[in-house]
Amino acid sequence: MITKLPNTKFMLRENGEWLEAHTENLFIGKNILFALPGAFTPTCSSTHLPQFDLLYDELKGYNIDNIYCLSVNDAFVMNAWARELSIKNIKMLPDGNGDFTRLMGMLVDKSDKGFGMRSWRYALVTKGMEIEKTFIEDGKEDNLSDSPFVRSSATSVLNYLRGIE
Asked: How many Å apart are CA 110 and CA 133, to the nearest integer?
């Protein structure tokens, strides 16, 4: 795993307009990034994203500036997913081309399920562009039959911030 975030471009969609954002401009201060295989997928929708939104205030209490949810999906899908789940606090980060995910070494092939290339599930605590702590799910490989969800949960990140890890 790398120790610094790659500086890539993200195409965001806000108020009907395209906005170009770069990693170095988004990750200022202390942040949490969690990445998951896909919007509207079962574990991502029922637990992973909602748990971060639910624990948002407590996570922010540890001097966290932003919490980002990243997926190899486009901005339209990420925004629709956040609306569908009534996500209020988490910033959606669409990595539609998988550029950031590939440079992080987290791009996996999920074509056995018709997904194409997607992100492996992980979470990070960052200080600026520097990675302070990683929470990477075990067993990273292409076309894995399941999608492990243990280490990258909001609870795991919160326990680290509490010093319990």
From this structure: 26
